[in-house]
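Appendix C reproduces, verbatim, an entry submitted by the partner laboratory led by Prof. M.T., so that reviewers can inspect both the input and the predicted structure.
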Amino acid sequence: MEQTKFGYCRVSSMAQHEDRQLIAMIELGIPKDNIYVDKQSGKDFNRPQYKKLLKKIGADCVIYIKSIDRLGRNYTEIQEQWRIITKEKKADIVVIDMPLLDTRRGKDLMGTFLSDIVLALLSYVADNERVNIRQRQAEGIAAAKAKGIKFGRPARPLPENFYSVYAEWKAKKISLTEASKKCGIPKGTFYSKARKLDHIYEPRNE
């Protein structure tokens, strides 16, 4: 009896594209209606499409994934999801990028043993690479900050009338509330910008 094919794709943010994974699924002849895609981080593993897929599959099904790290965010989760799919749901898994991880092959004890070894190794590698990527990102950000590179949203330009309003406020002709209204910015923002100007124009003690 031919197994029903399913595909699962995951990208870690809405800005990323799942095209590479989808192309691989379509080339394998998986119906589009049987391809489930989650566009969110695996941080908490709260993935709606993955959950729908788990409800669909059974002993006569096979799930295709592009790479082992699509199953989970770390070694423990990859192992757990593999167990749920193969033991509880009794479905097969095929990892496209690693042909050795194909549970349709080697159903005997030796085949299962070899598959488990490869799974454990690849899960560890995927987990370790994720940790290394985070470390490299942190080191890169630290190095960039040391060079004076700023991160985050660029600062909004000051209103055109800011300096004239600032002068009025500094001369105590208007209140902070009035100044912020004239500039069309929150009081806290106006005060913060004004304090920076105060610092610039404060006379230095030579």
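Confidence is low (pLDDT under 50) at residues 200-206. Additional entries are available on request from the coordinating office.
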